[in-house]
Design brief:
Layout (H helix, E strand, L loop, with lengths): L2 H7 L3 E7 L7 H14 L4 E5 L14 H12 L6 E3 L17 E8 H4 L8 E3 L13 E6 L8 H8 L5 H12 L4 H11 L5
Parallel strand pairs: 1-2, 1-4, 2-3, 4-6, 5-6
Helix pairs in contact: 5-6
């Protein structure tokens, strides 16, 4: 490889993709998102989520648009920062950044990052390192789990229970960190099949 090609590969921009199913996103996920925004800047951090072709209504009840709505309403994450793209192979062009000069940083929790193999295309991110563009390498950035025992599965199961309205509201507030009556009704109706 010629020296000019090596120089051309150096990234001048970065796109940080925090990936996950987010069925739905909870306040621990939001804490991670805000840590990323503080470290890399709000213009560079994006949520990468989609709905798999093998998704089931039980485990993946929310569409991409519904997840985007929940993130915006409950956490004030701008809709243009929530992208319908694969967490493990995000589409940089959806960010509005130039893929030819943008490094790709994939953010996963410590438990999920273990599924990825480094070497070849994927490398571990190191602070201060000169990054190269996403066509040549992608970087893995691991973050601690900040769920405080929250589980989307448990949340969905409680929201699907008959009765126990007070318990549902309490669990909703703990899960999201706040109570929003409009969103509460939307989530409850969606999980109980009361809407299309």
């Amino acid at each position: 490889m010629r020296y000019s090609q090596l120089v051309e590969a150096e990234a001048t921009d970065i796109a940080v993709f925090y990936g996950g199913r987010f069925q739905p996103m909870h306040s621990g996920h939001f804490q991670v998102y805000m840590d990323l925004v503080r470290k890399f800047g709000s213009d560079n951090v994006f949520i990468a989520t989609t709905v798999s072709k093998t998704a089931t209504p039980e485990k993946d009840p929310f569409s991409f648009e519904e997840k985007q709505y929940l993130m915006n309403k409950m956490f004030n994450i701008p809709a243009d920062k929530v992208l319908n793209t694969q967490p493990y192979k995000p589409d940089v062009s959806l960010t509005g950044k130039d893929p030819n000069n943008t490094a790709i940083l994939l953010v996963f929790s410590e438990k999920d990052a273990g599924r990825l193999k480094t070497g070849g295309y994927l490398r571990m991110y190191k602070d201060g390192e000169q990054l190269i563009t996403g066509d040549e390498a992608g970087y893995i950035y691991t973050v601690p789990v900040k769920d405080d025992g929250r589980s989307a599965t448990t949340f969905r199961n409680i929201m699907r229970m008959d009765g126990v309205e007070d318990k549902k509201q309490e669990v909703f507030k703990d899960f999201f960190g706040a109570f929003n009556p409009e969103v509460y009704k939307f989530v409850k109706d969606k999980l109980n099949g009361d809407q299309q």
